Structures are given as C-alpha cells and as structure tokens.
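Retro notes (design track)

What went well: tokenization of the new backbones is finally stable.
What didn't: we kept losing track of which sequence belonged to which structure.
Fix going forward: every design gets posted as structure first, then sequence, in one message. First example under the new rule, 127 residues:
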C-alpha cells in the first residue's frame, strides 16, 4: 500500500469515527425531545377526551370551555409552542444527519448505516 493510499485510508477512518461520534451524541438529545413530545401528546389526548365528553362544552363559549379544562388548554398551548420551536426537527435530528451524509457519500460510491459506519460500494465500471 502506497503512502497516498495509507493517507486516504486514515482519512476515511477519521471521517467514520467523527460521523459515528456526531450521530451517537445526537441520540440522547433526540430521545429526550421524543419523551417530552410523547408526554405532551398524551396530556393533549386525555384533555381532549375530557373536553369533548363534557356536556357543558356545547353550551358555553369556547373561551369559557377552555377555562373549564385547564389540562387540555395548557397542554395544547405547550404543544403549539414546541412545534413552533422546532421539536419535530430535534426528534428526527439523527436521521436528518444520516440522510444528508448518504446524499454526499453517494457521489463517492459510498454509503453509511444508521450509526454512521461507512459502507464502501464497488466502483461503477467505466465505459
């Protein structure tokens, strides 16, 4: 193996190590945001059930109905704020990194798995 090939191999290994490190470090954050989203979604669902099953909901104004069901009101407001702050991107951040990396690696006849490990593909036959 020539010196140039050794440098290229070392560069690929360093790139793979850094990519796996980035993806691994984004998983705990994404997991926390997912748990937060699930908890708020459950609160919205439970609050909506009680809000819709309350017979007084159809008889009072919308704002009064919201005042009578604070769990639904607050959890719905929190859900809207979370989506405005971009929780959907934070939940899927690791897959966004992997997909963008795959797009770039495709030009080099390479791919990567969901953990960032590189997959070398055979070079296409030249014409």
């Amino acid at each position: 193996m020539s010196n140039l090939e050794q440098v290229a191999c070392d560069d690929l290994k360093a790139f793979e190590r850094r990519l796996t490190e980035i993806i691994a470090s984004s998983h705990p954050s994404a997991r926390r945001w997912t748990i937060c989203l699930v908890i708020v979604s459950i609160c919205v669902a439970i609050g909506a059930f009680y809000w819709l099953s309350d017979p007084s909901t159809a008889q009072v104004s919308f704002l009064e109905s919201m005042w009578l069901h604070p769990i639904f009101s607050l959890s719905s407001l929190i859900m809207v704020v979370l989506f405005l702050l971009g929780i959907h991107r934070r939940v899927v951040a690791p897959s966004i990194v992997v997909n963008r990396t795959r797009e770039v690696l495709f030009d080099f006849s390479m791919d990567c798995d969901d953990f960032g490990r590189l997959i070398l593909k055979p070079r296409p036959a030249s014409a």
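Added context from the reviewer: DSSP finds five helices and two strands in the chain.
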